[in-house]
């Protein structure tokens, strides 16, 4: 009976695929071992399953075989060639460096340096840039001056309010201190007035003797 040849294509059934992978992996590793033993060959096999599981076989050491592979002349040439990412990085770096040089030159020209290589149109463009920058600087300065003036006015108004409040407090203290003194003076004046009342005119303060009988008439 003739053995039917299996068509090489992806197995759709997951279970059948896993069984086939397990059988053929063992067969592959067996063939590699036989080749290494019969021919004294150094072999390394690395296999990842569909689920990401690692399987490997090496006659000596997988790392040694990989290092030996990298030391081959054609592989050394490939390792010395810059990768695509490195080439893009170098290109980006060169572009940024060129842009930085252009910006530095523009700044020098704005300061009035290195103008001998500029043409008439370039000088006019530079003049417009300077005028626009100067107008923005002046506007920013005016805005800042107005803000400072407004702040000074607010500070002056606050100081005037504080000064008026202090004057009011001083006047109130003077009034409060003056009222008790006036009351004391009035009471003292009343006491003095009471003690200095003049006696009647017919009162003779010099004769203090006791007189008996009718007064003597001359």
Automatic annotation (TrEMBL):
Domain K-box per the UniProt entry, residue ranges: 86-178
Subcellular location: Nucleus
One GO molecular-function entry: DNA-binding transcription factor activity
Protein name: Uncharacterized protein
SMART domains: MADS
MADS-box domain: residues covered: 1-61
Stretch forming the signal peptide: none
